[in-house]
Amino acid sequence: MTFHRAPRRRWLAFAAALACSAVLPLQAQPAAWPAKPVRLVVGYAPGGATDVIARIVANKLGEQLGQSVIVDNRAGANSNVGAEVVAKAVPDGYTLYVYTIANTINGTLYNKLGYDPQNDFEPIGLIAKIPNLLVVNPKLPVKSVADYVRFAKASPNGVTFASSGSGSSIHLSGEMFKMQAGLNMLHVPYRGSAPAITDLLGGQVQSMFDNTPSALPHVQAGRLRAIAITSAQRSPLLPDVPTVAESGFPGFDVQSWFSLAAPAGTPRPVIERVNAALNKALAAPDVRQRLHDLAATPEPGTPGQLRSFIKAEIKRWHDVVKQSGAKAE
């Protein structure tokens, strides 16, 4: 009896250890992501293009992920307030950010930021791009880019162009054109696109490189004249309006863009899952139609493609900001 008892005890101890080793890793596994609602931070107030696009995407993302995606507006400092909130958030996948062209501009525009536009975020994927329209007051004797150039050169004071604020993509579109065309163009900044459009309609300023969704209703009503679009291709909403590139400035391609990003350090499986959900959302007919109505082109892609794009945009706008002398307001 004694001879057989020790091996039996050793066998029982071994079996118990084996059972524990099988159970413990299962207990240590985290809950499947997402196990609760996801917060999507927008760096602008409700109602603007960034907010509208975020809400279109959030609804479909929620369907794909099986959890609500809640838009959280953190407006201020040209989206820097929202960006800093996300950059400092726990990188667990439950805080995402609508990263835009503004974030690639702000790194140069502001002397000091509370975040690093490139290193504090994990790119997930592009959402969409929206071109700008070069619009003029209809009383101006200008019907084409060539007319615009001639008018600016013939006028002793050049030509004025409004923007939604110093350092905005609307402002820097004009600065890029000014540099390429070698024109005397006076920038007139406003606090938002709406007051700029109001003064353009009233004739207080002569032109503007405005976001298409903002300018389009006025163009369609005949209150403004569109003489060019800043994307590489014409817009199906305005098929008769030529691009700046085909109007004598090859390679000119400036668009506002919107993407998804997460705090740096967010697990790779989460990034890949959100990217897959985003691309499926962008393929949905209702999402594509709503983006089309905003003159936005869906831009599905990979995290790697967005990372490369952001790096290139930071370099591009660094050069424009420095050459133009643009300053944060």
UniProtKB/TrEMBL annotation:
<dbReference type="InterPro" id="IPR042100">
    <property type="entry name" value="Bug_dom1"/>
</dbReference>
<dbReference type="InterPro" id="IPR006311">
    <property type="entry name" value="TAT_signal"/>
</dbReference>
<feature type="signal peptide">
    <location>
        <begin position="1"/>
        <end position="28"/>
    </location>
</feature>
<keyword id="KW-0732">Signal</keyword>
<dbReference type="Pfam" id="PF03401">
    <property type="entry name" value="TctC"/>
</dbReference>
<comment type="similarity">
    <text>Belongs to the UPF0065 (bug) family.</text>
</comment>
<protein>
    <submittedName>
        <fullName>Tripartite tricarboxylate transporter substrate binding protein</fullName>
    </submittedName>
</protein>
<dbReference type="InterPro" id="IPR005064">
    <property type="entry name" value="BUG"/>
</dbReference>
